[in-house]
């Protein structure tokens, strides 16, 4: 199947081919009218939804497509004025975003169901991305747990809290694969790898939606941003993704597919275009791939103002044209641009197929409301008592602390510098980020409040062992504000036994529209680091960041580097748990850290090419002249306070036919002194295929707790379909031949390998990375 995603086509079926003669003979009145393409969501809708559509006026239908802003993140509900309530009464609004609160939203819902003509309930939405009031680590950090169960639990808690606050719908998970850390939104996703990304996508959908979407404790997930939003040229947010069909299908699509299979109730289209076709107008991708091929039956919402922005893209000259393109492509709800509600009326009236598209969009929106139980119990989400008891409950804080502890990645640990000894000593905490509570909330903080956060500094002070003295000086803040001075920091550090240097980016340097051309440390952070190294004291870097940073020089000079990302409300307590060895760090990088900005984008999973990189500069190969070919810290990298020895990777059978499983097992022993988690990673390579295959592809992983001195055997069970190659025009093809498997502690730290042979060719309908490898621990 060639996708042909460069085409923006019509949603009316192409009329049956006619011979040249018959066209020549036909008079205008004899040309058969174009048949509208049948639309599943219209036929499969419930009787209630069909009945409602039959009763709705054109204006009421258009109103359902309208998602209006009820405020902005900082001023929730501020736009819900009496005039706005009138619009609700007239049926002009289908949904609000940036609203919250059991009581105010309850009143709004009451107006919709009791005072509008048809009593259709409203949908209330917000970006609840890594917590509602109990803020968890930022998404890239959640992915660094390498444990989908952690994400699932965080998403379930987020659903519990936000539904208690009157919300039905979150704009999460963000599943965009991203390989360019200049892109600020890398903080919002699961990193660089489609297999890891697909696991995390599924886990989040399951967490938000639970097993019963109509329960008032679950909310509708929005998997976003459908297309290839994570591949903007140059890492500049919103930029065009000029990628191949191969990359689109093998790298960017698998998490969306996995989310579809997990039952995501909605998806959001990306702002950007792929090779000139904005995804918001891409009928081939939305209606063709997502709905027809994958069977996605949920609702699609545009991104903020994105329908109107089709004019900026240059694919629509007027608002009407923009709206028609989006509706035909399969977008159902218009986030804030007001184009679908206000500008397509005439076009729809003049075109039966478009009218059918409109009905289908309304059907999908009403079906989402129905799945949430809103027709039967519209007030179920408006229990103010529940709201009070649920938000920031002790259990939720506990879960946030656990997730934060599990998300940290120990990048370097020379001579066991960490954990810190609990013998009496003075530790200088240096760096303004240590006291910055806002930063721990990261990008998208929903209703997270800085006053809820245990700062890194407070956590260290409150959990320090007896006899340990914590001193503090800010030295510098990433944005250069505050009263901090280097002199005080140097004096404080010089009087201590060791330095915990808290440096990095603050919350405002990553996230939407926060691309950076240089991903080294902000200048004053680097200066602070140099001043600390110059004291001659042992320095441990506590890195705070939403993206991989190029910290080659700082990492070389520090004894230890602990990457803490941005950890949420329990940041400081979690840091203390790891710093003093209550628990061993076991987070792993979901994306590599480059040596320099100029080395991005790069992935362990690149194609080998004809002249693979060779460190020998006398040879002309695929490398830089000025830096080593390897990243500073590899994908999957993360150290432990313990040590692990891997045994032999064993394949249950050396040849595998279609329908049989590939079964691989490996024993891993904790040879250190501390009980700890290890993340065991399985990578695959297809050494000879009809098209070149990546050097390595993640195909399985498991975070396993192994007590000191004990061995666990991990068994991976895969299907041959997980080796399928996307072939344009054919689909997913499993080619017979050899497959190499390696197991290791990162994409570069390989401990054992084996190979098997697939004996048959098969064609599957599934992106290979979207399929999950089963694991068993014994
Ligand atoms: C724009 C962002 O791209 C999207 O992720 C978000 O959900 C919407 N704004 C709504 O806030």
TrEMBL record:
GO terms for biological process: carbohydrate metabolic process. Residues 10-38 are annotated as: Disordered. Residues 678-747 form the Fibronectin type III-like domain. Keywords: Carbohydrate metabolism, Glycosidase, Hydrolase. Residues 11-22 have a biased composition (Polar residues). GO terms for molecular function: beta-glucosidase activity. Signal peptide: none annotated. It comes from the Bacteria. The keyword Endoplasmic reticulum does not apply. SMART domains: Fn3_like. Belongs to the glycosyl hydrolase 3 family. This is Beta-D-glucoside glucohydrolase. The lineage of its organism: Bacteria, Pseudomonadati, Pseudomonadota, Alphaproteobacteria, Hyphomonadales.
């Amino acid at each position: 199947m060639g996708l042909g995603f460069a085409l923006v086509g019509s949603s009316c079926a192409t009329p049956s081919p006619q011979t040249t003669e018959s066209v020549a003979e036909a008079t205008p009145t004899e040309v058969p009218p174009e048949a509208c393409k049948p639309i599943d969501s219209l036929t499969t809708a419930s009787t209630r939804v069909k009945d409602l559509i039959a009763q709705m006026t054109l204006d009421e239908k258009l109103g359902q497509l309208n998602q209006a802003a009820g405020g902005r993140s900082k001023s929730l509900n501020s736009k819900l004025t009496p005039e706005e309530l009138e619009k609700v009464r007239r049926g002009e609004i289908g949904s609000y975003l940036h609203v919250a609160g059991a009581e105010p939203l309850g009143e709004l819902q009451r107006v919709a169901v009791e005072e509008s003509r048809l009593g259709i309930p409203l949908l209330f939405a917000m970006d609840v991305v890594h917590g509602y009031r109990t803020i968890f680590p930022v998404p890239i950090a959640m992915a660094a747990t390498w444990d989908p169960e952690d994400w699932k639990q965080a998403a379930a808690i987020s659903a519990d809290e936000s539904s208690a606050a009157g919300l039905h719908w979150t704009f999460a998970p963000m599943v965009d694969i991203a390989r360019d850390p200049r892109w600020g939104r890398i903080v919002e996703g699961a990193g660089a790898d489609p297999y890891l990304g697909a696991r995390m996508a599924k886990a989040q959908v399951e967490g938000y939606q639970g097993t019963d979407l109509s329960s008032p404790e679950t909310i509708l997930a929005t998997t976003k941003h459908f297309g290839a939003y994570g591949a903007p040229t140059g890492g500049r947010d919103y930029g065009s993704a000029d990628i191949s069909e191969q990359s689109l299908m093998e790298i960017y699509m698998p998490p969306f597919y996995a989310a579809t299979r997990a039952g995501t109730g909605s998806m959001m289209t990306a702002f950007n275009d792929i090779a000139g076709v904005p995804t918001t107008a891409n009928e081939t991708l939305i209606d063709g791939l997502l709905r027809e091929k994958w069977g996605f039956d949920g609702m699609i919402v545009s991104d903020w103002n994105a329908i109107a922005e089709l004019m900026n893209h240059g694919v629509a000259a007027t608002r009407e044209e923009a709206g028609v393109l989006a509706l035909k492509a399969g977008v159902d709800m218009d986030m804030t641009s007001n184009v679908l509600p206000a500008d397509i009326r005439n076009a729809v009236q003049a075109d039966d197929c478009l009218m059918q598209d409109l009905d289908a969009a309304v059907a999908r929106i009403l079906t989402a409301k129905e799945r949430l139980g809103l027709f039967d119990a519209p007030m179920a989400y408006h229990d103010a008592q529940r709201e009070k008891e649920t938000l920031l409950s002790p259990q939720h804080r506990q879960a946030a602390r656990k997730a934060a502890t599990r998300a940290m990645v120990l990048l370097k640990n020379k001579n066991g510098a960490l954990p810190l000894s609990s013998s009496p000593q003075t530790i200088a905490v240096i760096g303004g980020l240590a006291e910055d509570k806002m930063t721990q909330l990261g990008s998208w903080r929903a209703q997270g409040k800085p006053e809820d956060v245990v700062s890194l500094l407070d956590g260290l002070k409150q959990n320090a062992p007896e006899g340990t003295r914590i001193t503090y000086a800010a030295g510098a803040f990433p944005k250069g504000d505050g009263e901090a001075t280097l002199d005080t920091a140097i004096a404080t550090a010089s009087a201590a036994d060791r330095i915990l240097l808290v440096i990095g980016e603050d919350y405002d340097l990553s996230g939407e529209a926060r691309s950076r051309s240089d991903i080294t440390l902000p200048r004053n952070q680097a200066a602070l680091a140099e001043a600390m190294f110059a004291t001659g004291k042992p320095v441990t870097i506590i890195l705070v960041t939403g993206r991989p940073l190029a910290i080659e020089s700082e990492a070389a000079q520090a004894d230890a580097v602990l990457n803490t990302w941005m950890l949420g409300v329990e940041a400081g307590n979690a840091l203390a748990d790891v710093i003093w060895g209550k628990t061993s760090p076991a987070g792993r990088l979901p994306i590599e850290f480059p040596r320099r900005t100029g080395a991005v984008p790069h992935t362990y999973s690149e194609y080998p090419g004809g002249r693979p990189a060779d460190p020998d500069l006398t040879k002309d190969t695929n490398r830089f002249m000025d830096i080593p070919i390897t990243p500073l810290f590899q994908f999957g990298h993360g150290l432990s306070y313990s040590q692990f020895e891997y045994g032999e990777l064993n394949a249950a059978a050396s040849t595998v036919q279609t329908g049989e499983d590939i079964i691989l097992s490996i024993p891993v022993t904790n040879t250190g002194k501390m009980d700890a988690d290890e993340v065991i990673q399985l990578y695959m390579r297809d050494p000879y295929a009809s098209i070149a295959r990546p050097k390595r592809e993640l195909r399985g992983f498991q975070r396993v707790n192994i007590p000191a001195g004990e061995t666990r055997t991990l068994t991976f069970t895969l299907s041959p379909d997980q080796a399928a190659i996307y072939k344009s025009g054919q689909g997913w093809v499993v080619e017979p031949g050899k497959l190499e498997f390696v197991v290791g502690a990162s994409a570069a730290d390989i401990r054992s390998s084996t190979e098997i042979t697939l004996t048959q060719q098969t064609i599957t309908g599934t992106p290979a990375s979207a399929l999950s490898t089963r694991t068993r621990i014994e």
